[in-house]
């Protein structure tokens, strides 16, 4: 049931739309046939650069079929501030009128149409206006007129100016997929209670200010890590898989209307140093959203090039490349099919003056005054649990050089982050720095239903935060540095009791195994904090002393593929479901002593999926008090940007001159 | 593996204990054979009254068997402040030495012992010291000596004084079982987004300060609503099922060592008015924890008597009874088997000067200057969804008079809360008031996996909070009133996508039904906010306009009994599992068009269970800034108590004189 009528006011259009919750959408931000990108209800930082795209849709068939599939190429668009006279887009932004682009795309109106293989086809006429900015705070009304009488309106809000830099540095930790529920579970595993009182706490527990941010996409209530990272870094929500752009309907994944990111702004305005650290492959969404502009997060090679060289196909803000860039994913660096244009990106970085480290020893020895690249293995970094406890799992072919061997001299998130701070502090100098540090496998292991591996990496993030605060103190920059710890989305994980593994394993009947679970008073206390000869690891105060006690947490989530549940640690990484004829069923090799739980997700799902929940924001340092309460993920950007004085009323480019090569 | 050795320092004892996480415990707060209650690591408000109990255990058999099962009756106990000279308990508190009590109890060492029906039996010698208080902030060391050389030590901390009242009134909303995940889902159902921006928000979203509280019990990491409510109201964690006491091992559920509650303190010190409102039966844990002192929350009749008359078997602070007491659960008021001593508690309350209302009309008409009781039905109040949308479900025999008819003239949480504020404001006068208002069925419906009913009641709570703030403003007491909204524990609920009910219902294969679920970009937007003729209800801006759209939320939790999942609203209240030979299986009458999900809980579980997650605390008003960050549930009590000036360095009883009858 898609709307047949376009209406004048977008808010009215929205209230009449019944097309808004379907499985598939023609274009999520465009319930009418006339599309304005950025769409209605978007916010902007004063001076933030962005592109504009208009599309007029002419569905050829399906419930919306219109005008015999001929889109109106004579559409017009205007912009007006606070009720002042509307001007054409070209006039307002002093641009040459662009030419009309045309393309065709198709989509399914619902699952029945998909099953029947009956797509709806849409012809499009479009124009894009590139690299504009709004400097004056207030409300702008953009009006698209098309089909001789139809109108789509978008109201844009330019937020207040904040030109003064209150924090010299910002360190933004992202626990990918990390929720309050997981933080609570991680605390239980690593920290001991005596009669209900924790004897030690997480580093996160000591943050003075707490907020919640809403993670939903612009056009779906469940987000992925691409558009949620973009929201955090740009103040603009987008569509699943999109980075630094509003997704349009064109076939080209690199022509979507862009928005300037926090590190682009910071480079342009203040010339600060910036860096990204991740336990994922560095071309993954959370790190590349800092510099990436594409609708398709899977364009890994291009995204690494964009991080180094900026957007190539349009005039756009260059950051000069990251000052520190540490993670995994050698596939995009080794010359070959995974790298951009088949080039050797170790060499591309080196040519731009980077030291290149392929192991921890080299990383720690790298000079702090030079730009630094560190890529430590293929794929993602092995998780904390495998690096420290189940080290047999490191025996995989993942050397970052491409050699046929295992990467063993691996840094963790803490080593990478502390080194990045050294480099950024040195290179940023009086201009300060911005660092994003991501605990990526919290998410990746939750997808695998591998709770222990996820929680191990959450504890690694927490340990890194603790070490970071100590580091900032030792560098005497703690009071100048805003430290934020948050997430990009959740997974519906929670702990609901304990399980007696001895009893569980002694039962042969699958139903009887469930009786090993103790709930309420029978949950008992955490045994992960009890030292035990032979299974206690020298992993310090902030990690479990025993990952494999008799009584383990019983935990789970509501969004599952078919799988077996055995509770307790899996000594090898999990693969809960296996494919058979294109559908996923229980993987009989995974947790073979467990009981079968049939899934709740579509049968093509091999893994768990992201969830809706608001995620926590922990803040300390300058501007910390602005992070209390509940807000959207885009507000995290505006809060950081205001603390960094990035809301400028004029086109500031002084920073670019100071960016060092 | 239970410990064979008792050790000197309790902290050392704790670190050596390997008995701490088992399914069953001899006594959760006592890993050694000598027990101090309150145990090690407990905090106290200066001047807060409490009892002390010592127990010496002599296990007759089992892994801990000791001294042929003969407990040491000659044990001694001392207390010393900050390293000063230790005095005997009797000397320190100027009490007569109590006589020794003796009893026997038994427990199972693990699930194998339970299956084998081989309990361990323990003989106990004990002494209790009743109604003491510590007035001087600092650290106290309590030492129990027994068995000629064994020692158990408890360190108690008396928190700082805070004698000044900063808030005149406190309103404490408890969403029972309410988590951040549920709040996020409720927002999605009731509030509309346009291109990712919410057009309206929850009342909770507008609170300036947010915190997280840890809900775990004193001796298990999953709590129930009794001991978590006690922690919130007394600053003392306890054991599952316990209210206002530390659970001891004696057979009598009414002789456990008590702690004074917030309303007892407030009555004694300031003589403020107080009230409780709940959508549960009023004898349920969350309301009765305000005044109840028993290890057994199921003592419903006694608990109602304790609310009215205070503790009967010991000298203890009397509150004079609640000024407003509104909820359900007529079973404890109608003369008969459900009421204390078979008495008519409507009459017992009336004799003490209460107006008694059995329906909404009567409630609203009750005078504000008199104490008010309102009991509106048997069992729990029907949920918001059934009261407003699926009203056929009100056709049950639940009249509060005991008559064989349906209670139809029902108030909701909002009407009860606003009326309670009128009564408390009037009766509290210059002494102010404390009100606890509970959205109880958020929890009760999550137990049933009935997400829509739970979220409806969460939205009712939010609507009540909004109306309360408006009410306080209209009474000109908003700035004098600390408003807190929190929860007592969670359930592991989250939303992970949408489901196309039309597609779901068109599939006959259970696996194919799962393909109706849309995740990520296919989750779409909420259709609950779209008006639709015939299914849009006049339920105002803060509730869904359509509870039964084509595209519904796909949600769930990890802790389940066997059940069917159909996504979307159940038009009748759910009963997911049904008993067969003492085990629970899928209830074939519940969601018959759904697909089967086998459970993850013990097979004797008919319902979902509580979860571990920290829960949010929203605060506004005087002292709001003290509620930021992460802390234990007991800290909520200390923060409120300090804001109310209840931390007193002397025995203050002035309030009692001002309590009106």
Automatic annotation (TrEMBL), chains A, B:
Against InterPro entries, the record matches this protein to: Alkaline_phosphatase, Alkaline_phosphatase_core_sf
> Recorded E.C. number(s)?
3.1.3.1
State whether keyword ATP-binding applies.
Answer: no
Q: Where does Zn(2+) bind?
A: 176, 443, 447, 488-489, 610
Q: Do the record's keywords include Lipid biosynthesis?
A: no
The residues responsible for catalysis, as annotated, are 225
Q: Which domain of life is it from?
A: Eukaryota
Pfam families xrefs: Alk_phosphatase (PF00245)
**What does the entry comment about cofactor binding?**
Binds 2 Zn(2+) ions.
Residues involved in Mg(2+) binding = 176, 284, 286, 438
- Entry GO MF terms: alkaline phosphatase activity; metal ion binding
The protein's required cofactors = Zn(2+); Mg(2+)
What keywords were assigned to this record? Answer: Magnesium, Metal-binding, Signal, Zinc
Its family remark reads: Belongs to the alkaline phosphatase family.
Protein name in the entry = alkaline phosphatase
Q: What is the species of this protein? A: Cladorrhinum samala
């Amino acid at each position: 049931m898609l709307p047949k009528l376009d209406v004048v006011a977008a808010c009215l259009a929205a209230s009449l739309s019944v097309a808004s919750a379907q499985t598939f959408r023609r274009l999520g931000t465009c319930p009418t046939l006339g599309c304005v990108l950025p769409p209605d209800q978007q916010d902007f930082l004063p001076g933030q650069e962005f592109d504009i795209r208009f599309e007029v849709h002419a569905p050829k068939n399906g419930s919306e079929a219109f005008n015999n599939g001929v889109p109106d190429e004579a559409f017009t668009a205007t912009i007006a501030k606070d009720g002042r006279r509307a001007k054409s887009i070209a006039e307002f932004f002093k641009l040459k009128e662009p030419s009309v682009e045309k393309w065709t795309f198709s989509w399914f109106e619902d699952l029945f149409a998909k099953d029947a293989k009956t797509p709806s086809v849409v012809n499009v006429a479009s124009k894009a206006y590139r690299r504009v900015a709004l400097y004056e705070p207030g409300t702008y009304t953009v009006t698209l007129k098309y089909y001789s009488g139809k109108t789509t309106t978008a109201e844009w809000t330019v937020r207040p100016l904040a030109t003064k830099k209150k924090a010299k540095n910002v360190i933004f930790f992202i626990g990918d997929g990390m929720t309050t529920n997981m933080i609570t579970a991680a605390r239980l595993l690593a920290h001991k209670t005596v009669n209900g009182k924790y004897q030690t706490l997480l580093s996160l527990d000591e943050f003075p200010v707490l907020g919640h941010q809403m993670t939903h996409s612009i056009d779906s209530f469940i987000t992925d890590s691409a558009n949620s990272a973009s929201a955090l870094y740009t103040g603009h929500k987008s569509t699943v898989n999109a980075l630094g752009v509003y997704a349009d309907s064109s076939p080209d994944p690199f022509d979507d209307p862009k928005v300037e990111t926090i590190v682009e702004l910071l480079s342009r305005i203040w010339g600060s140093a910036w860096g990204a650290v991740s336990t994922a492959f560095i071309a993954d969404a959370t790190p590349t959203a800092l510099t990436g502009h594409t609708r398709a997060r899977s364009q890994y090679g291009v995204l690494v090039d964009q991080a180094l060289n900026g957007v190539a196909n349009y005039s756009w803000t260059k950051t000069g490349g990251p000052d520190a860039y540490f993670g995994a994913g050698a596939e995009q660096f080794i010359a070959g099919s995974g790298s951009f244009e088949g080039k050797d990106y170790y060499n591309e970085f080196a040519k731009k003056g980077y030291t290149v480290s392929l192991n921890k020893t080299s990383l720690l020895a790298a000079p702090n005054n030079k730009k630094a690249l560190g890529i430590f293995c293929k794929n993602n970094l092995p998780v904390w649990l495998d690096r420290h406890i189940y080290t047999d799992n490191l025996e995989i072919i993942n050397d970052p050089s491409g050699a046929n061997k295992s990467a063993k001299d691996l840094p963790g998130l803490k080593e990478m982050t502390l080194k990045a701070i050294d480099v950024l502090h040195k290179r940023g100098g009086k201009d300060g720095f911005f660092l994003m540090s991501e605990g990526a496998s919290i998410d990746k292991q939750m997808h695998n239903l591998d709770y222990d591996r996820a929680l191990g990496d959450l504890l690694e993030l927490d340990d890194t935060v603790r070490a970071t605060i100590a580091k900032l103190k030792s560098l005497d920059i703690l009071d100048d540095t805003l430290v934020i710890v948050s997430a990009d989305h959740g997974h519906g994980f929670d702990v609901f009791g304990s399980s007696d593994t001895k009893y569980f394993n002694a039962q042969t009947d699958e139903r009887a195994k469930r009786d090993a679970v103790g709930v309420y008073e029978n949950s008992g206390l955490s045994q992960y904090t009890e030292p035990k000869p032979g299974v206690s690891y020298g992993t310090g105060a902030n990690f479990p002393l025993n990952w494999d006690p008799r009584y383990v947490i019983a935990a789970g989530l509501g969004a599952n593929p078919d799988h077996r549940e055995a509770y307790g640690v899996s000594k090898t990484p999990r693969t809960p479901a296996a494919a058979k004829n294109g559908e996923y069923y229980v993987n009989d090799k995974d947790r073979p002593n467990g009981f079968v739980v049939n899934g709740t997700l579509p049968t093509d799902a091999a893994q768990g999926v992201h969830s809706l929940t608001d995620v926590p924001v922990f803040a300390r340092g300058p501007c910390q008090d602005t992070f209390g309460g509940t807000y959207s993920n885009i507000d995290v950007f505006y809060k950081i940007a205001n603390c960094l004085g990035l809301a400028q009323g004029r086109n500031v480019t002084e920073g670019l001159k100071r960016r060092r090569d």
